[in-house]
Design a protein that fits this description.
- There is one protein chain.
- The protein is of the alpha+beta class and 622 residues long.
- It folds into 3 domains: 118 residues, no CATH class; 103 residues, Ubiquitin-like (UB roll) (Roll), CATH 3.10.20; 238 residues, no CATH class.
- It is 29% helix and 29% strand.
- It contains 15 helices and 39 strands.
- The protein has a 4-stranded antiparallel beta sheet, with no helix packed on it.
- Helix 3 packs antiparallel against helix 4.
- The radius of gyration is 32 Å and the shape is globular.
Length: 622
Amino acid sequence: MGAIQKYLWRNWWERLAVVLIVVCAIAAAASSGYAAVYQDRVYPGVFVGSYATGGLTGDEVRQRVAAASDTLDQSGLIFVFRDRKVTVPTVVATTDDPDLSYDLINYDIDATVLSALLYGRTGSILQQWKERVWGLIGRAVIVPEYTWRKDAVQELLYKNFASLEQPAISTELVITNGVASVTQDQEGIIFDYERAFNEAQSQLDGLVFSPVMLKLKKDIPILTKEQAEPLVPAVQRALFSVGVSVTYEDESWFWPASTINSLIEIRAEESGSIKLGFSKSHLLEQLEPIVTQLTREPQEPRFAVSSGKVVEFKSPAQGQYVLIEDTWKLWEQQLLLERATELEPVVEIIDPKQEIADLNDLGIAELLGVGTSSFARSPANRRHNIKVGADAVNGTLIPPGEEFSLLKTLGKIDKAAGYLPELVIKGNQTVPEYGGGLCQIGTTTFRGTLAAGLPVTARQNHSYSVSYYYDDQGRPGTDATIYDPAPDYRFKNDTANYVLISTRIEGDELFFEYWGTKDGRTVTQSETRLWDRVSPPPTRYIETLDLPVGKTKCTETPHAGVKAAFDYAITYADGTKNETTFTSQYRPWQEVCLIGVETLSKEVDAVGLNLEDADLSTSTVQ
């Protein structure tokens, strides 16, 4: 080896180091230049749903996503079978109270835009480079951020398509004059809703919408006559000839033998085995009056401020619930194996969460803030529900450090709680629902929280702007909607003492007073800013069989879409700040009118839905 070769070989690592440094410098320069070129723009190769967004600014991406969202708002999500079409709106409308309107499908446009802009800009340097390179050679798809109430959509489809289905009929146990027998089973045909939901979700992911064609599938009986018949002799032996007493403490009920025998069933277990037992669903029906009589909600202590002092106006009390699952399992064993004639339900005793030893230790000394709202021009049912909701919140005590949940505080929102129903539009039907007026409670709670200087942990604005919730400047943006089970309204008591909420109604005004001990914090709240006003779409008419022929019933007047925001800051005694901007996006709201008709247009009979006519595995039934 020559001297030059030895020299070159001896210094190879120096040359390699130089090469690596040069390569790294070039890569860094390229990276810096690449980032500079696409500053405030989405990197190439990034798609939001089906839309190419590479090279676009955030505002341009927002316009594309908003346009797709607006298209869905206008047309709804359409499901079709033959000539029957059901349109699922993005918002459930109400004929009486805007509080009962809620989102079925809602895109979070700002979060979607942010996800697109952050692609290739977060994580390690290696991860960022990997994402950027993949965008250049492949396709990086950002699924838009959205929520949809699949259960509510499913319920709507069931209500509108159920008349066309022929569900399977499982064999049933029949007892006639003390003799047990089983009926004949039958296969059926139903819609493949899960397939339809998957296709609908793909469209929501892609931001491109077209009618979802419903397909049919076989519906197999859960239990056949062939499976059940061998257990008929066992059923015969299990029949009761005497009644059974149900007792709990001083209460008692008597069920005759016929009632007990009506609960016996032959069922198919998940394991595939066939078993003799007692029907849980039938037992629940029989237990309903007993459960109603025995159920007692735990009562938390409730307080008020009188003459500057905290007084207890409702004492704590234990609650109790009948444990249905445990009761069923226990009774099935007792009735089948022990032939018991006396039964006792399994009851759980629930203690109240709060136990207050001394009212003087609560730290409730002064008014922290007041939230107000007006419900002028509200109909009678709405006024009634507002009072029921306000009474449920009145006297609530929130321990220091605890998060307050409005839905938990209100409890069950139903007839038993004193609420009155109002009508909402689902598909081409009007359905009674409970909860009208409760967004007035949510809004007033929100405003009281702001005035008291407590941090809000969960708040969602109404789907569209409602005049009930305009501020004193006539602007939307300071409302809070609630709907069981979601969205909820929540805030945290981050003071060192208890906070008491006291509610009252004066005329058309609702007041929520927050009491506690001031700790030196102050709050500031800006005026509400409004922008991006959008005119409402034209009125949509829906045929229905629920109204007299020719009669029309519409939702409240249409509303323009608009965005609103206000700035809010809590400054604590030590100078630290908690700053938040509350942003609301109200969609344009069209008037929706139901028109009573004798028969729905494009109605299709169930005749012809049979297994022989359908390729159930691959095609839509034509």
